[in-house]
Write a structure and sequence with these properties.
single chain
Length: 127
């Protein structure tokens, strides 16, 4: 189950790395605006906020990735701790999104699904 937790954490990290690209790189592009449903004016006005938010998602992806790799390398305590910190933060961010705006339930589930499954697998492996 530890290996499954690591794989799921890597999936979660990939999703958050993609979110980083959407927010920090493509925010004002037609593709980025289409994903987030913003106008050109709105995207320009919120670009700095999205850039910052994108890096937040990237940092979570890095933490989860390092945790997964460390766990797979056999350093279970450190790996599990980093994996739990990264995926726990991803899960919490997804919950905040859905609680704060019910119209964002679908993206929230994308954001929190893989981290939740990784944490469940990690908890089972710790038994």
């Amino acid at each position: 189950m530890g290996q499954l937790a690591a794989v799921l954490a890597l999936v979660a990290a990939a999703i958050h790395a993609y979110i980083f690209v959407l927010e920090a790189v493509w925010w004002t592009s037609p593709r980025g605006r289409a994903v987030f449903g913003t106008t050109e004016t709105e995207a320009a006005a919120t670009r700095q906020l999205a850039f910052n938010q994108g890096f937040y998602n990237l940092f979570l992806a890095v933490i989860a990735t390092v945790g997964a790799i460390t766990l797979l390398s056999g350093a279970t305590t450190i790996g599990s701790t980093l994996l739990a910190a990264g995926c726990g933060s991803m899960l919490a961010a997804g919950l905040v999104l859905v609680v704060s705006d019910r119209t964002k339930t679908r993206p929230a589930l994308v954001q929190l699904g893989a981290p939740l499954l990784a944490l469940v697998a990690l908890a089972i492996s710790a038994r």
